Amino acid sequence: MPKVKEAPFPRRKTRRINVGSVPVGGGSPISVQSMTTTKTYDIGATLQQIAELTAAGCDIVRVACPTDKDAEALSIIAKQSTIPVIADIHFQPRYVFAAIEAGCGAVRVNPGNIRRFDDQVAEITRAASDHGTSLRIGVNAGSLDKRMYAKYGGATAEALAESAMWEASLFEEHGFHDFKISVKHHDPVTMIRAYEILADAGDWPLHLGVTEAGPAFQGTIKSATAFGALLREGIGDTIRVSLSAPPVEEVKVGIQILQSMGLRERTLEIVSCPSCGRAQVDVYTLAEEVTEGLKDLTVPLRVAVMGCVVNGPGEAREADLGVASGNGKGQIFIRGDVVETVPEDQIVECLIRHANALAEEMGLEEEGQVEVIV
C-alpha cells in the first residue's frame, strides 16, 4: 500500500487490527476499500471485478453474502483474491461463521439487521479469534437498531454512535477487540458528528463512509467533504467512497481524496487552469488529451497545462514539466527552465514525449493512477 513519509497533521491514535494482510489503525496507512457489484456466487465475474479493483489501487474489497450460494463461493474467492476480502453479512448469523471458516480477511456485521445476534456474540468471537479474522461493526442510518431509533427519534449522530458503542461492548465483554467501526449516514454533517463522538469515546479503528452518497458527481462531493473534515481531525483508518457508479470509480475517488490530503503518496499530477477569457487555447481539450496520453504512467511528476500569459509561465515553471500556451504556440518548461517552444498543434505530443523521458530517467515504469486537478 502506498505510504507517505510523514502525515501532514496528527492522526488519532487507534488500536491496530489486521484485515488479512492489510494493517488497519495504529498509525498504518489509510486503506481504500470498495465493494463488488457482481453476484458473489458468480465466482468468475466476482474475481474479475476484484482484479479490476486491485489494478485501480483498491486495498481491501467487500463482497455481499445474502444467500447460501454466496457463502459457498467465499472460500474460493478469498483464496484467489490478491487483496483481502471482507464478507458483508446481514440477517443470517450462520453466514458469519461460514465467512470466517472460508478464510475471509474480515466479516462486516450489522447487528441492527442480523436476527438473533446478541446471543451468538460469544460464539462469533471464539470463531473469529481462532481463525485470526477481524470484524467490522457497521451501523447504517437505514438499518439502525430500532431501540436507538425510538430513543432519539431518528437516525441522529448520537443514535448512530450509541448503537455502535453498545455493539462494540458486546464483543469487548468477551475480550474481543479485533474490530473496526463504521457509522454511515447519507448526510455528511450527521456522519461527521457521529464519527467525532466515537473518536472521543474510544480508540477503535474507524472506517469512514457516507452511505447512499448518490451518483458519481454528488457522491464524490459528499464523500470529499465528509472525509476531508474528518481526516483533517486525524479521524479515519480506512475509507470507502459509496457511489452509484462502477466500483473502480469509487477507488479512484478515494485515492484522489487521500492524495489531496497528503495522506497517500502522490503519483502523476496534472495541474491545469480552469480557463477564462484570457485563455488563448482550448485548455479543456488540451488537458484532456494530455491526461489521456499519460494515463499509463505512475510517477511523482507534476505536469502543468496552462492556457494564458498571466498565471501560465509561473505555474509551468514550478512544475516538473509544464507548458504556458498563447499566441498559437506553447513554451515548454522542464524543472523551471524553458527547453523549447512548439506550435500549438504539437503541444500534446511534446508534453507526452518529455513526460515519458522523465519517467524513464527516474526509473519508474509501473502502471498506475493519474491525478488530474482542473
TrEMBL record:
Pathway: Isoprenoid biosynthesis; isopentenyl diphosphate biosynthesis via DXP pathway; isopentenyl diphosphate from 1-deoxy-D-xylulose 5-phosphate: step 5/6. Residues 14-254 form the IspG TIM-barrel domain. The keyword Iron-sulfur applies. One of its GO terms (biological process) is terpenoid biosynthetic process. Its cofactor is [4Fe-4S] cluster. Pfam families: GcpE, GcpE_C. This is 4-hydroxy-3-methylbut-2-en-1-yl diphosphate synthase (flavodoxin). The gene is ispG.
